[in-house]
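Treating backbone geometry as a discrete language has practical consequences that deserve illustration. No coordinates are needed to read the tokens, only the vocabulary itself. For completeness, the protein is quoted in full, as a sequence line and a line of structure tokens:
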Amino acid sequence: MKLLRFGPKDQERPGLLDAGGRLRDLSAHVEDIAGDALLPEGLARLAAIDPDSLPLVTGDPRIGPCVGRIGKFICIGLNYADHAAESGLAVPTEPVVFNKWTSAICGPNDDVEIPRGSKKTDWEVELGVVIGKGGRYIEEADALSHVAGFCVVNDVSEREWQIERGGTWDKGKGCDTFGPIGPWLVTPDEAGDVHNLGMWLDVDGRRRQTGSTSTMIFGVPTLIAYLTRFLSLRPGDVISTGTPPGVGLGQKPPTYLHGGEVMRLGIDGLGEQTQRVVRA
């Protein structure tokens, strides 16, 4: 299934993309793409619905974040060896973990705002993992059974605040609008081999990132098992798993967003995002 949420900000309704690419309204069957709806039994109930029986959504509604009521937005840094190299950093021996605040979350096609005082706002296309069945101390062999689905994430980052201003990475990662998610939550049966998906990002029509999830250092099961040594995961938590090379920081010379640009990005089978960059 391809599940999504549509409508005005903070008023999104649950939806499903049918085989013809048409948006169907799931409101009569589930309150939101969130919480218990993401459990295996919740997804099974949605999968049993005939899409043709659902009302068609007309017009061109805004597409919201594909998951509602996200509790934790956990990110993995330097998870592609070639991205670590372009950043001038060693390949990590354990996953590098940081957080985005949930106030960073926005829809896949919403504007991305450059914060006041920012000089080095950057882009990062990433594979997002949405947790279905929660747990703690999850074994790597069981980890994928805890996944509700996968999505595209743009891990927008302010590099000066992340790297040059002391403290943790978080203050350069969690600014408002720095976490576009979606357009769809693609369930594992439809996503295919998520460790072999092409991914890309363009800025103003120029290809900046081209990569594949096949070059991740730590795969999805490893990340889930690792994280749950330190914290419990719950339905709707999102893990963003790192980016391939081609970020602005790695350009020669470094190239950053200043406002007025358009970012377009996508991952095979998981959809595309388009964001206009504006100044706050």
